[in-house]
Amino acid sequence: MTADAGRPLEREPEHAAEAAEIRRLAHPLATADGLEPLVRLAAPARFVCLGEASHGTQEYYHWRALLSRRLIEEYGFTWVGVEGDWPDCWRINRWVRGESGQDLDARRLLAGFERWPTWMWANHEVADFLTWLREWNLRLPADQRTGFYGLDVYSLWDSLREIFAWLDNNAPDALPAALRAWHCFIPFREDPQRYAVGNRLVPQSCEADVVALLAEVRRRALGRMQDDPAAFDAFQNAVVAANAEHYYRTMVRGDQQSWNIRDLHMSDTADRIARHHGPASKGLVWAHNTHVGDARATDMAHGGMVNVGQLLRQRHAGQVVLAGFASYSGSVTAAESWGSPERVMDVPAAVPGSHEDLLNEVLGERSLLVFGADRTGPWLAAWRGHRAIGVVYNPRREWGNYVPTRMGDRYDALFWHPRTEALRPLHHEDQPGEPELETEPSGF
C-alpha cells in the first residue's frame, strides 16, 4: 500500500477510476431477491465456494445460507461441504436426510460439536439453515436429498473410532489393522500436540499403521461405497486418519506445508463427495475466504501455498464459482488465544488503503459485486490489503490481519457489508483445563 492510500478518493484519479468500477459492479443487497445476479452466475457451476472474512460474523453465515437455499431449491445442488470435521458433520448429514436422530432438533444436534471452536457450527444461523434443509429434504425422495459433509482433517481419534465401529459390523477379521493404529496413538492420550511434539523429539511415527489401515478399509469398502453410505463414511474416515496423522506430524514445524496438507485434503474430499453424488451433481463449499479465494491472487502464492479455491479451479476449469465476503467495521465472535472461551470483540474500521476502506468510501449500503469476464479494470486488477479474521483475533494488531489481494482473480463475486454483528453461539466454550496448543496451520 502507498503512504497516501488513505487520502480522499476524489483527489486521486486512479482511485476515482476504481470507485467508478466498483459502482458499476455493485448491486444492492436488501433482500434475498438481490442475490439474483450471483444466482445466475452460480447456477451452471459444479462447485460454488462461499467464503467468510471471519468465523464469527452473523451476516456472513446468514447470506451464505440464503444463497445456498436458492441454489438447492432452484438449481438442484445436492451437497454442502463445510470447514468442519467429517464425523460430526456425518451425524448432521444423516439427520438432515431423515435417517437418524429424528427425535432431536437442530440445536440439540449441534450441541454434539465439542472440538474447539464450537461456535463455528453450533450457532443460531447454522441451526436455522439445517432446520430448513431437513424440512426441504423430507419432501423429496431419498436419492434426491441434499447432504451435509465435513471437509476438514482434524478428527484423527474420532475417525479411528468410527472405523472401529464399521469394521466390527462389516469386517471383524480386519480389526487387527485398526488395533495396531490405535495402540500406536495410545501414549499420546488423544492429544495431537503431544503426538506432533513427541514425533519431533523421537522420530517414530504412526504413519505406517494408519496408511495400512487406510489400505485395508479401502479394500473392504471399495465395491460398496456407491450404494452403501456407511461404507463411504468408513473410507472417508480412514482417509482423514491417514491425512490427520501427516498433518499433525508436519504441523509442529510451523511452515506452510501443513497448510497445503489441509487444503489438499479438503479439496480431495470435495471431489470425493462430488463423485459419490454422481457426475451431474452440484455442490456448495463453505469455508473461510483464505481457503475459498484463489491463493494465486494473494501473497500466499509466493510462499508456495495453495488452497481449495485454487485447486478446484485448476481441476475443474469453467465449473467453479468463488464468492468472498468483506466488511468495514462492527463486531465479531472470536477468542483471544487458541482454546480459550469465545467473546464478542469490536472490529475497528478497516485500515486506510485496504479493499475494505475503498469499498466503504464508495458503497454506503450492503451490496453484492459480481465480476464479469473482463477482470482488467483498475479495482479488480489492483493489489490491496483484504481483511481476514480467524478464530483467534486481536483488534489491537489490525495491520496483521490483511492479505495482499488482487480481487478480480481471487473471487468471481464479493458480498459487501459496511457493518456486521457478532455470530450468536448456541453455547459458550468452557475454560480449558490446561493450555491448548494451536492446531491451525501457522505458515499463513
Written overview of the protein:
It is a single chain. 42% of the residues lie in helices and 14% in strands. It is built from 16 helices and eleven strands. The chain has helices spanning 13-25, 36-42, 58-75, 86-96, 106-110, 124-137, 156-170, 175-185, 192-201, 207-221, 229-251, 257-277, 289-292, 308-315, 355-362, 407-410, and strands at residues 26-28, 47-50, 79-82, 147-150, 283-286, 320-334, 343-347, 367-370, 383-387, 402-406, 413-420. β6 and β7 (343-347) form a beta hairpin. The longest helix is centred in the middle third of the chain and has 23 residues, at 229-251.
Short description:
With 444 residues, the chain is α/β, with parallel strands linked by helices. The protein has 16 helices and eleven strands.
Count of DSSP H/I helices: 16
- Based on CA atoms alone, the radius of gyration comes out at 22 Å
Strand content: 5-15%
Low-pLDDT regions? 1-11, 433-437
Helix content range: 40-55%
Helices and strands, with pairings:
Blueprint: H1 13-25, E1 26-28, H2 36-42, E2 47-50, H3 58-75, E3 79-82, H4 86-96, H5 106-110, H6 124-137, E4 147-150, H7 156-170, H8 175-185, H9 192-201, H10 207-221, H11 229-251, H12 257-277, E5 283-286, H13 289-292, H14 308-315, E6 320-334, E7 343-347, H15 355-362, E8 367-370, E9 383-387, E10 402-406, H16 407-410, E11 413-420
Parallel strand pairs: 2-5, 2-6, 3-4, 3-5, 6-11
Antiparallel strand pairs: 1-8, 6-7, 8-11, 9-10
